[in-house]
RNA sequence: GGCCCCUUGGUCAAGCGGUUAAGACACCGGCCUUUCACGCCGGUAACAGGGGUUCGAGUCCCCUAGGGGUCACCA
């Protein structure tokens, strides 16, 4: 395939959600795989709803994911401008053409009239279609009314019979009956283009070869095809991927928790994990395989692996996957991600603390699922123990011989030089043997005493990080606490 | 409601006329073990329903049901 040109065309009215991110990923993979170009186009033709910070957020999200593009508002390119708001002249030009060729016409119907028509249709339980009152207004009259300042939209003179066949790379041939169409609007009363018009002009002018987007656009495609034909243009190839649905099978929205890539980022997910997970949602290599690097995805990606049925995203699997990537991630990188929070919590106040922080990070990184979980799971390394796990207390502090055992733990610490985790373990096992106890009988109380919890990473590593005096101090406090029980 | 798309376990997802219907997440056992996580071993769990076609259907066709999308001067 040559001259592959694809685009990702977000509307800057919200965040980059995972559905959009996946569409961007598919386009990116397609462009990179076939040596094509990816263009980023900002579809901000609705000036009332578009927001500059949304556009920035979307771009930031794409960058965070590591998706890059060849042409776009920031990147430049020969087919710009890449914001619809800056392409008004271009739309006007083709609008004029359509008007001249009598393929479009001015419509003066007011919002009230239209609303009444819709209401009437609803009452009679028939489907609403624009009635076409203005379709037959003569060009002269229309122009006269425009000159006199009357507000108007421009409508497409849609065919009233025949069919449009969308030849979709993912779904095959999909047929639409033109009788169901009405004369849809091309230009709003403010002169701005509507989506279906702008997208056709842009995709053509930007020489887009493949339109890869989500299924929500499939129903719009026949209108767009009609427009391509009216303008005498060739068609791009279309490929409509299925949508990503929320766990309750409904369309993604804010009420479903984290759905935007920024939220995933802030919640401690790694971009490579999100990319990997998203790639597997709605696409399959047919191989029995879960982990894919970007390069491997590029190697294997193809449109025919894209699924036709909607996919429900599953946080559990994303988390599982993130945990794997996190375990392998470079510690410096994770430390940097945690830096601000750790600083705020006072975990980095001096260089001794900083070393300790790094050690904790190393210990926890392979066993948590998200980045911030390191701080949450490791809080006891930095903060004083304020409470002990309840069940653990009964089991390890509240037994008959608990105090005696705890005293042994204390003396063990006092007698050790804390040289290494291995040595510490050796000493503890020796002590247990001398006392005719199982090592676990010493291990569990110490764990509870120094962490307040019954589950931690390996005890001796934890002890080494806390250090001798801190262990002694914590065990002493725990003894006091146990006595009070 | 009309039109369009979709339908394999709770979720993702192989399968493309003949399989004991993969695998992964989750879940449940077991092993490992100082707990947790990891890892390893094992298990529960699916072809939406009904008609065809065929020697034979998860795979092809039709109908029904369910889900999703779309029908804006939103994109």
Word description of this protein:
The protein is mainly α and 485 residues long. It has 21 helices and eleven strands. The chain has helices spanning 18-33, 52-65, 88-100, 111-123, 139-147, 195-205, 221-230, 261-266, 271-280, 294-300, 315-328, 331-344, 351-364, 373-377, 379-382, 390-397, 402-415, 421-434, 439-451, 459-466, 468-484; strands spanning 5-8, 37-40, 104-107, 153-156, 163-168, 172-177, 185-187, 210-214, 237-241, 244-245, 311-312. The strands form five sheets. The chain has a three-stranded antiparallel beta sheet. A two-stranded parallel ribbon has the order 1-2. Strand 1 (5-8), helix 1 (18-33) and strand 2 form a beta-alpha-beta unit. Helix 13 packs antiparallel against helix 20. The mean pLDDT is 94. The protein binds one RNA strand of 75 nucleotides through helix 4, strand 6, helix 6, strand 11 and helix 11.
Tally of separate helices: 21
| Residues in helices, as a percent range | 40-55%
* Low-confidence spans: none
Alpha-beta classification: mainly alpha
């Amino acid at each position: 395939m040559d001259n592959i040109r694809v685009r990702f065309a977000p509307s800057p009215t919200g965040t980059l959600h995972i559905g959009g991110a996946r569409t961007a990923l598919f386009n990116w993979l397609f462009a990179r795989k076939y040596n094509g170009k990816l263009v980023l186009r900002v579809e901000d033709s609705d000036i009332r709803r578009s927001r500059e910070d949304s556009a920035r957020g979307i771009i930031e999200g794409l960058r965070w994911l590591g998706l890059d593009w060849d042409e776009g508002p920031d990147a430049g390119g020969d087919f710009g401008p890449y914001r619809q708001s800056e392409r008004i002249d271009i739309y006007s030009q083709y609008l004029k053409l359509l008007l001249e060729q009598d393929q479009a016409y001015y419509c003066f119907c007011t919002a009230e009239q239209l609303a009444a028509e819709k209401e009437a249709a609803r009452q009679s339980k028939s489907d609403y279609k624009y009635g076409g009152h203005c379709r037959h207004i003569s060009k002269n009259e229309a122009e006269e009314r425009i000159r006199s300042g009357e507000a108007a939209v421009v409508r497409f003179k849609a065919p009233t019979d025949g069919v449009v066949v969308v030849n979709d790379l993912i779904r095959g041939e999909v047929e639409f009956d033109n009788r169901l169409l009405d004369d849809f609007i091309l230009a709003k009363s403010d002169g701005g283009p509507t989506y279906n018009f702008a997208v056709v002009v842009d995709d053509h002018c930007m020489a887009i070869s493949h339109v890869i987007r989500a299924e929500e656009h499939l129903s719009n495609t026949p209108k767009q095809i009609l427009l391509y034909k009216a303008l005498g243009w060739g068609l791009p190839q279309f490929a409509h991927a299925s949508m990503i649905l929320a766990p309750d099978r409904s369309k993604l929205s804010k009420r479903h928790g984290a759905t935007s890539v920024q939220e995933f980022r802030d919640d401690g997910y790694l971009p490579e994990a999100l990319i990997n997970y998203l790639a597997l949602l709605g696409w399959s290599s047919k191989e029995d395989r879960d982990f894919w690097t970007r390069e491997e995805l590029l190697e294997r990606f193809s449109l025919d692996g894209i699924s036709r049925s909607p996919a429900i995203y599953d946080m559990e699997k994303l988390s599982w996957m993130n945990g794997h990537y996190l375990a392998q991630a470079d510690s410096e990188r994770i430390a940097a991600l945690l830096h601000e929070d750790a600083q705020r919590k006072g975990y980095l106040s001096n260089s001794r603390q900083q070393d300790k922080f790094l050690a904790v990070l190393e210990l926890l990184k392979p066993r948590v699922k998200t980045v911030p979980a390191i701080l949450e799971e490791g809080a006891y390394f930095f903060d004083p123990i304020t409470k002990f796990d309840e069940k653990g207390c009964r089991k390890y502090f509240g037994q008959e011989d608990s105090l005696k055992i705890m005293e042994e733990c204390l003396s063990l610490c006092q007698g050790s030089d804390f040289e290494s985790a291995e040595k510490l373990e050796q000493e503890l096992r020796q002590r247990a043997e001398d006392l005719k106890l199982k090592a676990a009988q010493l291990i569990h109380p110490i764990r509870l005493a120094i962490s307040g919890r019954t589950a931690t990473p390996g005890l001796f590593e934890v002890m080494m990080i806390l250090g001798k005096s801190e262990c002694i101090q914590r065990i002493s406090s725990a003894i006091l606490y146990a006595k009070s029980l």
